[in-house]
Amino acid sequence: MASSKPSTPSLSQHRPGKILIAFDFDHTIAEENTDVFVRRLLGPEGLPAEIEAQQRSLGWTKFMGAILQHLHDKGITSNQIRDLMQRTPLTPGMDVLLRYLHEKHHVFDCVIISDANSLFIWWILHFTKLEGVFPLSSIYTNPARIDDTDCKRQSGAWQTSLVGSVSQVTHASNQ
């Protein structure tokens, strides 16, 4: 399932006089960590020990790439991953808050600054009909895509503490 929707955004124009609200995604909008939630597709056997052992040496983004490759190697499709992500629960009350902020779009600009990946975020926002709250240009995160073999790929490491701070400052300074 190829999708051109999620991608790394260009910085959006925050309108003067509006309040900028920044959200993380995992454990904030989504109740769970989506990178951990996707492992449910592996069933009770979970990850092989050799992949689990790579977490520290690879760093989180490359480790997630290894997990996604393992899911692909086990025959788990991007549709199955998307279907699971659409069952990721939102933090209680978050949908009400986000719909309110969207209704008051003349007062608030909302952005996501997260180390979750763009496909997981987009699939969840789209399924919950919250994508209008966060235009793609307001989501700062790890870019992800589905390749020609139906394998989900994350592109590059996204340093949340550094890039997240820069994203906030840059987004706000484009006002």
From TrEMBL:
Belongs to the HAD-like hydrolase superfamily. PHOSPHO family. It comes from the Eukaryota. This is Uncharacterized protein. NCBIfam families: DKMTPPase-SF. GO terms for molecular function: metal ion binding; phosphatase activity. InterPro entries: HAD-like_sf, HAD_hydro_PyrdxlP_Pase-like, HAD_sf, Pase_PHOSPHO-typ. It comes from Ramazzottius varieornatus. It holds the Pfam family Put_Phosphatase. Its cofactor is Mg(2+). Keywords: Hydrolase, Magnesium, Metal-binding. The keyword NADP does not apply.
